[in-house]
Amino acid sequence: MSENLIEQHLKALSLHRINETYKIEAENAAKAKIGYQDYLQRLLEIEIISKIERSINRKMQIAGFPQIKKLEEFDFSYQPKINEKLIRELSSLNFLEEAKNILFVGAPGVGKTHLAISLGVKAVHERKRVMFFTAENLTLQLASAEVSGNLNRTLESLSRVDLIIIDELGYLSLTKQTAKLFFQLISKRYESGSIIITTNKPFEEWGEIFNDDIVASAILDRLLHHSYPFLINGKSFRMKNIVKNN
Question: Of 118, 180, 186, 202, which sits most exposed with the smallest number of CB within 10 A?
Answer without folding.
Answer: 202
